[in-house]
UniProtKB/TrEMBL annotation:
Chain residue ranges for the region called Disordered: 241-271
InterPro entries in the cross-refs: DUF5794 (IPR043812)
Protein name according to UniProt: Uncharacterized protein
Keyword rRNA-binding attributed: no
Keyword entries, A-Z: Membrane, Transmembrane, Transmembrane helix
Pfam family, one: DUF5794
Residues that span the membrane, as ranges: 21-43, 49-70, 82-104, 110-129, 136-156, 168-189, 201-218, 224-240
């Protein structure tokens, strides 16, 4: 099987332990660190392409694939059940955050805050590439906090619960896209093991995240699904039928990159 030392998943695994808990934390992280609210405020979910990119790259992404394929060693049905249980929590929480977002929006200069949201995604992309790089980068939550401080307008704050049905629906659908992606990976996991190079997919996903962030930062303005195209190409290049033959070699090289030695050698090599 192709293995992957995913830096983001490694960091989380050290704290939570357990494959199912790890998957739940990886998928819920955008809701926990404020990234999803930031994307809501940045207007990323206003288009279908934005919803797809957020669902696949933020809630799904390479960390989700790595955990399901390389670490979850349950049968197909238990894996599907785990993903559905995670989705049963993830989707309602995303909807609740869509209720809170308009109140936060009233107190922010969105043009400034939007750029910080883009920077967060770029940082996540960099952390996905290498654990060494991650050591020198601030956390997503701290960047979002700085963005709030830089763009806050206290006088304009309007404390009012706004049930924007359109925004709530987009938030729920976006989270559901991520859950659907994880569900598809869980169903296909037995077939994917041994033919998917997780390291290639990880690097490709990092590039897709970077491309996804550029319009948010304001580098260029386009509605073209470039990030989705990059993700699709990454998936194609990650297909490696002979991956099991040189898995040990790739694992050794990746371990050198992350500077992390597993405490329990009986676990999957990428952890």
């Amino acid at each position: 099987m192709s293995v992957s030392e995913h830096p983001v998943a490694l960091t989380i695994e050290r704290r939570v332990g357990g494959a199912t808990a790890l998957l739940a934390t990886v998928m819920a992280l955008p809701l926990l660190d404020g990234l999803f609210v930031a994307l809501l405020l940045a207007g990323t979910l206003e288009t279908t392409v934005g919803m797809l990119e957020t669902g696949l790259l933020v809630f799904g992404g390479s960390a989700t694939v790595a955990v399901i394929v390389a670490e979850l060693d349950e049968g197909r049905r238990p894996m599907v059940r785990s993903v559905l249980l995670i989705g049963a929590v993830l989707i309602p929480v995303a909807t609740v955050e869509a209720v809170i977002a308009p109140t936060i929006e009233s107190a922010l200069e969105l043009a400034i805050f939007q750029r910080f949201a883009g920077v967060v995604i770029l940082v996540i992309a960099a952390r996905t590439v290498s654990a060494k790089v991650a050591d020198y980068l601030p956390s997503s939550g701290s960047i979002i906090l700085l963005g709030l401080l830089a763009s806050v307008r206290p006088a304009a704050l309007t404390v009012e619960i706004v049930f924007d049905s359109s925004l709530m629906a987009r938030a729920a659908i976006t989270a559901a896209i991520g859950v659907g992606f994880a569900l598809a990976v869980a169903i296909a996991a037995p077939a994917l093991r041994g033919v998917v190079d997780l390291d290639r997919f990880r690097f490709g996903s990092a590039v897709a995240l970077g491309v996804f962030a550029l319009p948010i930062v304001g580098v260029f303005d386009t509605d073209a699904p470039i990030a989705l195209a990059v993700l699709a190409v990454s998936a194609l290049f990650a297909y490696s039928p002979d991956g099991s033959d040189d898995a040990s070699e790739r694992a050794s090289e990746s371990a050198t990159d992350t500077d992390y030695t597993p405490e329990d050698s009986s676990r999957a090599p990428w952890l």
